[in-house]
Amino acid sequence: MEPLKQKTPDSEKYTLACPDVDLEQIKRSFENIPRDPHFEAGYRCRTQSRYRLQDGAMRLLDRFPLFQPSAINPLENYGGIVRDYDDLPAWLAESPHFLRLVKTWLSFVPYDVQDFSAHQIRTEGGGKPVPEGRHRDGYDHVALFVVNRHNISRQSARTTVWDSLTDARLLDNVLLEEGDLLCLKDTDVLHFTSALEPSADANDSYRDVIILTTPDHSKIYDRYHR
Ligand SMILES: [Fe+2]
After folding, report:
1. Which of 30-39, 48-57, 161-170, 185-194 has the lowest mean pLDDT?
2. Separation between Cα atoms, residue 213 and residue 50, nearest integer Å
3. Rounded distance from Cα 192 to ligand 1 centre (Å)
4. pLDDT on residue 104
5. To which H or E segment does residue 189 belong?
6. How far does residue 135's CA lie from ligand 1's centre (Å)?
7. What separation in Å is there between the alpha carbon of 46 and the centre of ligand 1?
């Protein structure tokens, strides 16, 4: 892992390890991840859920479809449409390791968060984790947790972050290893992850990530439909 970035008052991004999260357990949550029915290129699998934090525990909220406006996600037939996905595996809401991951992220969000969303995304083969290019996600704060880099080359799937408030200057270009958590103030930065490059002789290769967002994605729907 590349150097830990310490939190500073004017910093928009942080990369940190999560040593108290059992990565093998989180990896198992991807075992039956369904293919993204809305993604025409076919190399993406996806789930999404909304959760509420209450009394130190996590509770699954009602399922709600995802809407990202075309201005946020310009990918044709993807951004600008309502996309429904299955929930994450139900047992994750009871997982102390998933709860620790969420709490680690929220320690970097400068206000109390009750509701948030989690999105599991698997990108396969030589696919692009970010097919829409350099972008923001449309939330206030997001985190990217890398769960699995399976049979992909070390130089592939690098994540780049730019400042979107000033002159789009480069803030970071980082190889996120398995178990790394990147926290971003989504209102102030743009990000991008380069394409996967399968290792030689690998016929099954993929990268699994969990994206955490606040507000939860139902609020984004409201935000862009008013
Ligand atoms: Fe993104």
Report:
1. 161-170
2. 9
3. 7
4. 94
5. strand 189-193
6. 6
7. 14
**Of the candidates 116, 130, 58, which has an alpha carbon nearest to the alpha carbon of residue 91?**
58
Residue 71 and residue 161 in contact, taking contact as beta carbons nearer than 8 Å: no
pTM over 0.90: yes
> Which residue intervals of the chain are DSSP H helices?
23-28, 96-106, 217-225
How high does pLDDT run on average in the chain? 90
Distance 144 CA to ligand 1 centre (A): 8
Could you tell me the distance, in angstroms and rounded to a whole number, from the CA of residue 137 to the centre of ligand 1?
A: 5
Residue 133 Cα, ligand 1 centroid: separation in angstroms? 9
The pLDDT tens digits for 157-207 are: 999 999 888 777 788 888 899 999 999 999 999 999 999 999 988 889 999
Report the percent of the chain where pLDDT is more than 70: 93
Sheet holding 141-150, edge to edge: 13-17, 180-185, 141-150, 206-214, 115-124, 44-54, 57-60
Asked if 208 contacts 161 with a C-beta cutoff of 8 angstroms, the reply is: no
Q: Give the pLDDT confidence score for residue 222 in this predicted structure.
A: 74
Instruction: Name the one residue in this structure whose structure tokens are 């309502």.
Output: 82
Residue 56, classed as helix, strand or coil, is: coil
| Residue type (1 letter), 68 | Q
Distance between Cα 73 and ligand 1 center (Å): 9
